[in-house]
Design brief:
The complex is a heterotrimer of chains A (205), B (538) and C (363). By secondary structure, chain A is mainly alpha-helical. Chain B has 538 residues and is mostly helical. Chain B has a single domain, classed as Cytochrome C Oxidase, Chain A, CATH 1.20.210. Chain B is built from 16 helices and no strands. In chain C, 29% of the residues lie in helices and 30% in strands. Chain C contains four helices and 20 strands. In chain C, helix 1 runs antiparallel to helix 2 and helix 2 runs antiparallel to helix 3. The radius of gyration of chain C is 32 Å and the shape is elongated. Classes of the chains: A mainly alpha (205), B mainly alpha (538), C alpha+beta (363). Chains A and B meet through helix 1 and helix 4 of A and helix 5, helix 6 and helix 7 of B.
């Protein structure tokens, strides 16, 4: 009964299949999807129960009128997903300089998104306490923003570790995992932006 | 199956520092078990407080407000800080051993998951130190009652505690799923894994998918209470029923989280003490998966009386979920048939589980019939149901598991005589407490009342239930004594005291830090049995 | 080498002790059934009878399943104890596909039958008549019940019963509408084998017909959804009267209520000052009122928020409540008689929506 080991190195890689870290991140993203599902369910429920949406009483609820800044930061966030993927492709080829460059751009775009979002909050003309519209708007976008912030922190760690030369073509699980998370955050924003801005804009025409 | 001879290296940590900083799944599993049992005892004290007050009509010891805090914290401790974590503790200890792995996939996250729990307990209980008391609107905290207007800061502390516990659960579930999919020893295919591991896998998927929905509900309630939000406030366009839907979308799968690993424990014990394989292994796998999947489709059966639910769908799905449960029952019984039963304490508790969970499942079926639920909802019938499935079910399975795996964990066997004394008193006390509640509920006694009408005819049964509660409390004494004397001078256990089937019995008791010196050949779901009896699957 | 499973000499008596426990449990169950204790109370409405029939059917199925499965367990425990002569392993049977199919299909059929019976009964219990004989709105608030007897239009309140006693005629269809002024409550009458939640923002309703055989009985009712500190005190009763007695009673109540005029402020020769105040969109239409000091006056309060309760409450500078008007659910109006107040500044507010507030200057 000789001791048999699975052919796996200390990094938790099998010969086949994705690494433990990436599987773990995929599962974590699934749980986050369910978290947002709860918030979206609340939004749809509250909206379906309202006699008219956006509710009367505050002209600022017509978000389609103030779509410029959100549109700009949306484009920036989508761009950042592209640069993030470029970073992954770079390090898969062993291109450490490309990794650093692209992660830095991704992080910068992410921070600009957050700053833009924060500024937009001050210009909106309604608060979280302004009826169900305000509550759902700020909760949905606010928690999305919190997830962007978390992603930005992770990107900072990736950037630091890249600068320290800790990633190679064979060992860069964290980069792959963080990029998956960043794409997820972007997809959630696309859904949010469409629901909160684009759909009302289309309906108004 | 030799006992290990490797000694700990230089600088190996020991003592209290080791326990506080360990990332070893076995120690973390024991920490989970210890903390959970502590919460069980504390939750039990609250239960005795409730039963003391209800023994006779009239408010003898508590104010209404204190009573409401007592039943709320009793349930919150038992569900979130005892039942779910104790099963996670068994999973933590056993899963890597049972699949032939050296540890869990993410050992440091594993430790973090545990330490969130004592913190959460402190946060939840700190409500008692506030001016308005601990959370007091039931463990279900329905809105609008849970809103800031009607409930004090204890509710916010309860929310934070549950957020911490949810984080612990979700991280733990990811750990289990990655470990099970990625770290099985060679030969350990999915369909050779012990049923305990299968139940942990399905449970972990439920935790991962359902708990975040509770997180979203708790956050929305926090926003309503503290930031001027309007999610659940009907006066400003919010929806009180929205809370119930989001809450139960998690809390119904939660009850399967609370029973599936317990069923896994029973599925490990019955074959060993019948000296036969588990009957219908594949059926168990399918039934477990079916219960997990169906569990997501029944949540609104907690809301039949709200007038806001499509009744036939949820009634039908609730009836359906009885079928995979029945399949498990028949397979367990068939495992015992034509076997050779030895009535050890683990087997006794398993037999107790079968009878009690049968009653709990059956009385739940009454509520699936919607008009009957109109009569029984929110009465003591439901209290009977939940305790038959959670205590008669999960708690009995927990004690079965403790007695069964104690030798593996600590290298010593718990005293069988004391175990059997505990079982007898617990069985009697349990039925004395909870069976009368069927009658109380049928005759109209609602839940969550601090006091009741002395002319309603409920006095005798309430007194009986209180006496039963103290019998249960008494039964804990032989258990605690057993633990104490076993640590002091229990008989050494050896690697495999029960003639087990699964890989944890292929190493020393307790196992070395890296779990296995040698693994036997894995060609069936009973590798240790095969090795013992020279069975080859060539 | 591992140890063989030890055969402790006492294990047989333990098996019998367990069996004894199980048999005692079953005996207790049989006693409870024969004594009628495992039954809901005798039903007093036609709907309750349907529910009781469903309960009995489920109970028979449940009892059969319990006895059958428990018998299998008991049989296995007795018959398959390990004996000293059992040195060889028993036959290592892994499963049986035929059995698996049988014990999946048969329970499925059973469950479908239960569901169909249950759905049928639900249609009876939930049926609502287009022309009920009596329409009552049960209004729940922490921790009291109030019953509004409504006219045939379902809106006009003929009589407001402020004690928690719901008088109703037997033998005819009664329609109950549920309204909450604060949190979720539940209207539960055990002998109706029925409860329904009272949810703010949702107007639940249901019908029932009390069996004429139960005339002149009183049935206890209780809130069955935890609603706060004094939930356990939120009781009410239902009194069943013959239709003639009921009509007499109701007309008497209506006449008495009309004969008692709305309290008119006494003292002072001049007509009382009337202040108009309207609530709309969870806000008062003004945030300042003025009233003369030392004389009682009237607040003519109109609530324009449909299904939303408001009132007017007056507190003095120390926060003490001087006057609390009864809750009015819109659209509706009420004249609140305010007692004479000393000169000073007071706050008026809605006790349900504290953000609705204003200043009452008395001089």
């Amino acid at each position: 009964m000789a001791l048999q080991v699975s052919h796996d190195d200390a990094g938790g890689h099998d010969e086949e299949g994705i690494s433990n870290v990436i599987l773990g991140m995929i599962l974590f993203i699934c749980s986050e999807v369910m978290f947002f599902a709860g918030l979206f369910a609340a939004y749809f429920n509250v909206r379906a129960n309202a006699p008219v949406w956006p509710p009367e009483g505050n002209p600022h609820f017509h978000l389609a009128n103030e779509i410029a800044l959100p549109l700009i930061i949306t484009i920036l966030l989508i761009t950042s997903s592209f640069t993030c993927q470029l970073a992954v492709w770079s390090i898969r080829k062993g291109d450490r300089a490309g990794l650093i460059r692209n992660i830095a751009v991704t992080l910068t775009l992410g921070i600009i998104f957050l700053l833009g979002q924060a500024y937009d909050y001050t210009q909106l003309g309604f608060t979280l306490a302004d009826g169900t519209f305000g509550t759902t708007f700020f909760t949905l976008t606010g928690f999305h923003g919190a997830h962007v912030l978390g992603g930005a922190i992770m990107l900072s760690v990736v950037l630091y570790r890249s600068l320290a030369g800790q990633f190679s073509a064979r060992h860069h699980d964290m980069v792959e995992a963080v990029s998956l998370y960043w794409h997820f955050v972007d997809v959630v924003w696309i859904v949010l932006f469409s629901l909160l801005y684009l759909v009302p804009a289309a309906a108004a025409h | 199956m030799a006992t290990t001879t490797l000694r700990a290296g230089v600088g190996y940590r020991s003592g209290l520092y080791e326990w506080l900083t360990t990332t070893d799944h076995k120690k973390i599993g024991i920490l989970y078990l210890a903390n959970s049992i502590l919460m069980f005892l504390l939750g039990g004290v609250f239960a005795l407080v409730v039963r003391l007050e209800l023994a006779q009509p009239g408010l003898q010891f508590l104010t209404d407000s204190q009573y409401n805090q007592a039943f709320t914290i009793h349930a919150s401790l038992m569900l979130f800080l005892f039942v779910i974590p104790v099963l996670a503790g068994f999973g933590n200890y056993l899963v890597p051993l049972m699949i032939g792995a050296p540890d869990m996939a993410f050992p440091r996250i594993n430790a973090f998951s545990f330490w969130l729990l004592p913190l959460a307990a402190i946060v939840m209980l700190s409500g008692f130190a506030t001016g308005t008391g601990a959370a007091a609107a039931g463990w279900t905290e329905y809105s609008p009652l849970a809103q800031a207007k009607y409930s004090g800061i204890g509710t916010d502390l309860w929310i934070v505690a549950l957020l911490l516990i949810g984080t612990s659960s979700i991280l733990g579930s990811i750990n289990f799923i990655v470990t099970i999919f990625k770290m099985r020893a060679p030969g350990m295919t999915l369909l050779r894994m012990p049923i305990m591991v299968w139940t942990m896998l399905v449970t972990s998927i439920l935790v991962m998918m359902a708990t975040p929905v509770l997180t979203s509900a708790l956050i929305m309630l926090f926003i309503d209470r503290n930031l001027g939000g309007h999610f659940f406030d009907p006066a400003t366009g919010g929806n009180a029923i929205l809370w119930q839907n989001t809450f139960w979308f998690y809390s119904h799968p939660a009850v399967y989280i609370m029973i599936l690993p317990a069923m896994g424990i029973i599925s490990e014990i019955l074959p060993v003490f019948s000296r036969k394989p588990l009957f219908g292994y594949k059926a168990f796998v399918f039934a477990t998966a079916a219960i997990g999947a169906l569990g997501f489709s029944v949540w609104a059966h907690h809301m039949f009386t709200t007038g806001a639910v499509y009744l036939p769908f949820f009634s039908f799905m609730t009836f359906l979920i009885a079928i995979p449960t029945g399949v498990k029952f028949f397979n367990w019984i068939a495992t015992m048939f034509r076997g050779q039963l030895t009535f050890s304490t683990p087997l006794l508790y398993s037999l107790g589980f079968l009878t009690m969970f049968l009653i709990g499942g059956i009385n739940g079926a009454f509520s699936a019939a919607v008009p009957v639920d109109f009569a029984l909802h929110d009465t003591y019938w439901v209290v009977a149901h939940i305790h038959y499935v959670l205590f008669g079910g999960s708690v009995f399975a927990v004690f079965a598991g403790l007695y069964y795996w104690w030798p593996k964990m600590f290298g010593r066997r718990l005293n069988e005589t004391l175990g059997k004394i505990q079982f007898v008193f617990m069985f009697i006390g349990f039925n004395l407490t909870f069976f009368p509640m069927h009658l109380l509920g049928l005759s109209g006694m609602p839940r969550r009342i601090a006091d009741y009408d002395p002319t309603a005819g409920w006095n005798d049964l309430n007194l009986l239930a209180t006496i039963g509660g103290f019998v249960i409390a008494f039964s804990i004494v032989p258990f605690l004594w057993n633990v104490f004397i076993t640590f002091r001078s229990g008989q050494p256990a050896g690697d495999d005291p029960w003639e087990g089937n699964t890989l944890e019995w292929a190493t020393s008791s307790p196992p070395p830090p890296y779990n296995f010196d040698h693994l036997p050949e894995i060609r069936s779901e009973r590798p240790v049995f095969d090795a013992r009896h020279g069975v080859s699957h060539a | 080498m591992s140890n063989p499973t030890p055969r402790s000499p006492g294990s047989n008596w333990l098996a019998f002790a367990f069996l004894g426990g199980v048999l005692a449990l079953i005996a207790g169950l049989i006693w409870a059934v024969l004594a009628g204790k495992l039954q809901p109370p005798a039903p007093v409405t036609t709907e309750a009878q349907a529910t009781r029939d469903l309960y009995n059917f489920v109970f028979v199925v449940a009892a059969v399943i319990f006895l059958f499965v428990e018998a299998l367990i008991v049989f296995a425990v007795i018959r398959y104890r390990r004996k000293p002569t059992d040195t060889e392993l028993p036959p290592q049977i892994h499963g049986n596909s035929v059995l698996e199919v049988l014990w999946t299909v048969i329970p499925t059929i059973l469950v479908v039958i239960l569901f169909i019976f249950s759905w049928n009964t639900l249609n009876t219990v939930d049926a609502v008549s287009p022309a009920p004989a009596v329409t009552v709105r049960a209004v729940a608030a922490q921790f009291e019940w109030e019953f509004d007897y409504l006219a045939a239009d379902g809106q006009t309140v003929q009589f407001r019963q402020q004690t928690p006693e719901l008088d109703l005629p037997v033998g005819v269809d009664v329609h109950v509408i549920l309204r909450s002024n604060d949190v979720i409550h539940a209207f539960y009458v055990p002998k109706f084998l029925f409860k329904r939640d009272v949810v703010p923002g949702l107007e639940n309703n249901f019908d029932f017909t009390i069996d004429p055989a139960d005339v002149n009985q009183t049935f206890r009712g209780q809130c069955a959804e935890f609603c706060g500190t004094f939930h356990s005190t939120m009781l009410f009763s239902v009194k069943a009267l013959s239709p003639t007695d009921f009509n007499t009673w109701l007309q008497t109540q209506i006449k008495t209520a009309a004969a008692t005029p709305a309290p008119v402020p006494s003292g002072g020769g001049t007509a009382a000052t009337t202040l108009d105040l309207t609530a709309h969109n969870i806000a008062y239409d003004t945030s300042s009122l003025e009233a003369p000091a030392g004389q009682p006056f009237i607040i003519n309060f109109t609530n324009n928020d449909p299904s939303v309760p408001h009132n007017v409450q007056i507190t003095d500078g120390t926060g003490q409540v001087i006057f609390k008007g009864e809750l009015v659910t819109g659209p509706d109006h009420r004249q609140y008689p305010i007692p004479a107040l000393a000169a000073g500044t007071y706050t008026f507010s809605c006790s349900v929506h504290p953000q609705m507030t204003g200043t009452l200057t008395v001089k």
